[in-house]
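Recap from last week: sequence in, structure out.
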Amino acid sequence: MNALFFSILIAYFAATALQFAAVAFKKEILGRIAWYVFLAAVAAHAVYVVVRGILAHRVPLSNQFEFSTAFSLGVSLLLVVLRLRLKADWLSTIAMPMTFLILSYAALQPREITELMPALRSSWFAFHIGSAAISYSAFVVAGCIGLRYILVSKKNRAGDELRLKQMDWLSYRLIALGILMLTVTILTGAIWAEEAWSSFWSWDPKEVWALITWIIYVVYLHLRLRGKRQGRVMAWYAVIAVPVVLFTFAGVNTLMSGMHSYG
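Predicted structure tokens:
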């Protein structure tokens, strides 16, 4: 399993390097090779997650390594879907590195398969943590799209208007998906907390930062729908919000202790 994991990590790195080379040297063939290497890495990544779940006899989301691995897979799968369905080839240069970096963070975590902690043995386990992985993935890809929007809009080339509209629409839709799934995460977490600790809310650092993240993105949605804001301003918003997601994901566990310290 360790050999498979590091093979996937190397494949993501190779795909990212090839994609950068394709853009830098304007070689379409390098871009195609990068894409095929990336697809092979995603397939192996999915197999790894499934096999780990089978070996552990549970959904593989119980600790920071497993969540990071699922998070990285979520980002890569979103990239695959967007490229195949919407021909969003322009997203690869930014999303591929994010997949690699998140999995690199996972590589720094303990990889041993352990028994599920008593606090995690609940029917809410998969819903709560799985929805968090989906929401984080959607937010990160939306941020990647926002960054790409900013870079393209700076060039101000003729013919980019349609592409910019597609980026703006995609970022908005992904953030809407992320808000929905983070709402599911918070609600299922509250129900689960009441069952486990007899309290719907305990102001645990992870709970607080999940709520902060939710509020930040709800403000985005409000500005988008009520304020009619779009384009470059909202692209910057999507980019600036990503560090909050990453802090909620990794910073809270690293810098703060609480009831979610095991996750």
